[in-house]
Amino acid sequence: MSKLEAFIFDLDGVITDTAEYHFLAWRKLAEELGIPFTREDNERLKGVSRMVSLEIILEIGGKQGAFTDEEKAHLAAKKNAHYAELIKQITPADILPGIRELLADIKEAGLKIGLASASKNAPAVLEGLGLLDEFDYMADANLISHGKPDPEIFLNAAENLQVKPAHCIGIEDAKAGVQAIKRAGMFAVGIGSVDQLGQADVIYASTKELSLEELKKKFGR
């Protein structure tokens, strides 16, 4: 039986929910481009990279061919600047239910804690949440070549935590994230619906259902 040594968390949808900030940042950029952008449109951007999201918005506005690659890179950077400004509003009150307690229990049990987030803004978000010091290692999104469902970011976290993947529990709320955890050879915990996260070893409807004792039992069964 594998010995549990570390937990590796995704950020958005697991530690906190920054989806609203992403929507507001994209909507502001769309307005600057004269493109109407609704919450319904925003559903198409979930789990999609920044550049693909930009392409979708340009398509919505009928402006697919209006910008060079260099101009698109500038627009994507502009959206990120809007987002970076918005996330300055994040406080510890934005930590999802049960997460603060789970992190404290993991630390008290002497287990390691890692972050595997594709967000380049992850350090700023964790700082706003007051959780920066809770993590033993955060994968640097700038150094990750392949996005989820590729396992690279989870393997990077395990390597830097100095634990074997088989001794880790990964926690994700997205289908691609769960696939990445499984491909890394880790035990996968999904937060969300069975329809989306069916590949996970165990699934909970929300973060408030997470408990260290139960997760240890599930891992060791």
The CATH topology name of the largest domain reads Rossmann fold
The helix-strand sequence is EHHHHHEHEHEHEHEH
Multimerization status: single chain
Alpha carbon gyration radius: 18 Å
- What is the CATH C level class of the largest domain, in words? Alpha Beta
What is the structural class?
A: alpha/beta
Strand order of the largest sheet: 3-2-1-4-5-6
Description:
By secondary structure, the chain is of the alpha/beta class. It folds into 2 domains: 6-16 and 94-220, Rossmann fold, CATH 3.40.50; 19-89, Putative phosphatase, domain 2 (DNA polymerase, domain 1). Helices cover 44% and strands 10% of the residues. It contains 10 helices and 6 strands. It has helices at residues 19-32, 39-42, 50-60, 69-86, 99-108, 122-129, 152-161, 175-183, 194-197, 212-220, and strands at 6-9, 112-115, 137-138, 168-172, 187-191, 202-204. Strands 3-2-1-4-5-6 form a 6-stranded parallel β-sheet, with helices on both faces. Helix 1 (19-32) packs across helix 4 (69-86). The chain is elongated.
